[in-house]
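In the current project phase, the collection of sequences with tokenised folds has grown. A representative record is quoted in full directly below:
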Amino acid sequence: MLETVCITSLSSTRVKRANGLRQRAQRDESGLMLIEGYREIKRALTNHHDLRELFFCTELFQGSNESEILDTAKQRGAQLCACTVPVFSKLSYRDRPDGLLAVAPKACHNLGDIRVAHDSMILVAEAIEKPGNLGTMLRSSDAAGVHAVVVCDRCTDINNPNVVRASLGTLFSLPVIDASTTDTYSWLKANDITIIAASPNSNLLYTECDFKGKTAFVVGAEQYGLSTAWNHQADYRVRIPMKGQSDSLNVASAATLLLYEAVRQRGL
């Protein structure tokens, strides 16, 4: 096993390289990503997403289980890097770091990785701009037992550190796929999956539609809604009732309502 490296210099090459992964261009070029936080790193390891490097600062640990993370990462071949508080503070992108930050291969899946079953539930998110919204949808998808999330025509990088953070590491608990609308639609139809588009202009309430079979829920960003392609190609368009002055919900909230209506109907 690799010996633990001690980093005391703010100008360390390892630190500079890790900090560069905050930029999408560097993530795309290197094929690597950042994972910060105890829960996030634990979920990555639990789901067999191994680490390349694990930076840690014992002075910032907030519990007593961090040693288990270090041992598991080391056993799986990660380079452990012990940091001083100033060094880790430079690495961290959080207001209150907990002393754990990892460099890992990017999360990468394709449509062929999705196992289709008689009750498959897929979330399709089109042109989502905010990492926080995407991360929240991943948390809801994990909680509702979604089989995969497909991000179509993405505006934010799936491997953005803030997506990892907002998802609480559930980015690693299910397949998250980056695909075009055309490829996604073709895959859904080839697998006989019913397409449900969220639309405020529909007359059909989301509670009145059957979500028990193979179902894909398609949601879009609040500002523009779903593209014409999804609105025209969906098998059903459903709306969530709006009783106030606002004409739309936050996209993550809307996705969560649709997913949990499917959970309710399926008696899960």
In short: The chain has two domains: 5-105, 111-266. Residues 183 and 228 are 16 Å apart (CA to CA).
